[in-house]
Amino acid sequence: xxxxxxxxxxxxxxxxxxxxxxxxxxxxxxxxxxxxxxxxxxxxxxxxxxxxxxxxxxxxxxxxxxxxxxxxxxxxxxxxxxxxxxxxxxxxxxxxxxxxxxxxxxxxxxxxxxxxxxxxxxxxxxxxxxxxxxxxxxxxxxxxxxxxxxxxxxxxxxxxxxxxxxxxxxxxxxxxxxxxxxxxxxxxxxxxxxxxxx
Length: 198
Fold this sequence. Notes:
By secondary structure, this protein is of the alpha/beta class. It has one domain: Class I glutamine amidotransferase (GATase) domain (Rossmann fold, 3-Layer(aba) Sandwich), CATH 3.40.50.880. It contains six helices and 13 strands. The chain has helices at residues 14-23, 34-39, 51-60, 64-68, 79-82, 184-196, and strands at 4-7, 28-31, 42-45, 74-77, 85-88, 93-94, 99-105, 116-121, 139-144, 146-147, 154-159, 163-170, 173-176. The strands form three sheets. The protein has a seven-stranded mixed beta sheet.
């Protein structure tokens, strides 16, 4: 059994994510096999690119229902987090439907160019297990043009001309809008925390 199965959805960040997990001592295996996903202790859904393309790829691989049915901890990263929601403005895409909201395009505002690219602060009220050892105000690395709203699923926010969900949780499904594999110590801490979640 693999420690972590990384869903092979063609994301450009997969190599750096695998390296980040290997540095933490995790056996990270890239797979598109539903049986292997179900057998793994943890699953990561990475993503870089467009929501419609990513969902089409998951559907073509027969992974949509497999992901929805997973019982172990699952972490969506960047676009992978957005795919956990019901739908996205990006291409009017129907997503996995695990979180009851729609991902919206970041509004064009003076002084806040889209995409939101670079380091930004995390804010959170509680101390959820995914963020253990991470401090309020710690900075992480974002690259995105679409963002999830704040709701009961939100465990951390960030602000870019308006507040959005920077990290989420719904049952065994977790998400990080930022790239932990590019976020230095803070990102490594989040990944280490995910590896400890039962």
